[in-house]
Specification:
The protein is mainly α and 173 residues long. The chain has one domain. The protein is built from nine helices and no strands. Helix 1 runs antiparallel to helix 9 and helix 6 runs antiparallel to helix 8. The protein is elongated and about 55 Å long.
């Protein structure tokens, strides 16, 4: 017998994406990472010149008038999903990419002491290894937090857990 799209078989196939494998304390990581990304995304619109389009232009990001709002939306949407614990693994992946681009575009020039490729070095008073570590502390913490969530998923206090329980109940029925 064949099952229609969206059947229990389909739910079970993708249930691992929603499985809450993070320890209970993972809620702290999920909440902080979600809050920081959502708030930073909102600020890309509230303070576009300093943190959105204007900053992207200064850094050397191509098509800043497009990329500034795009990144803002990604951060708001994915950060909000993390706050709710919904599709945690999927929501964390674009945020990992976001942080890799942020480090490459704004922090590597600090490490090098000059711009490279399309990225400018116009935003840090100091350069070198220690300046890089200081300036990238939040970016590195957010990268690690988002990577943790992409691997471990949500915790027991998430919508992902609720979905996993419902999928297990549907599969048994």
């Amino acid at each position: 017998m064949t099952h229609p799209a969206g059947s229990a078989d389909t739910i079970v196939k993708f249930a691992w994406l929603f499985r809450p494998d993070a320890p209970g304390a993972g809620v702290l990581i999920r909440f902080v990472v979600g809050l920081v990304f959502a708030s930073e995304g909102i600020q890309k619109f509230l303070y576009a010149e300093a943190q959105g389009v204007g900053r992207f232009t200064k850094i050397g990001i191509p098509a800043p008038e497009l990329m500034g709002p795009f990144v803002g939306v990604v951060e708001v949407v994915c950060g909000s999903l993390l706050l709710a614990g919904l599709a945690t693994r999927l929501a964390a992946v674009p945020l990992v990419i976001d942080m890799l681009v942020a480090l490459a575009s704004t922090k590597v020039p600090i490490l090098l002491g000059h711009g490279y490729w399309i990225f400018e070095h116009t935003f840090a008073p100091k350069a070198g290894f220690w300046a890089f570590l200081h300036q990238s502390r939040t970016d590195l913490a957010m990268l690690c937090g988002a990577t943790f969530l992409a691997i471990a998923g949500a915790d027991r206090w998430s919508l992902d857990r609720l979905l996993t329980r419902r999928a297990a109940g549907t599969a048994e029925a």
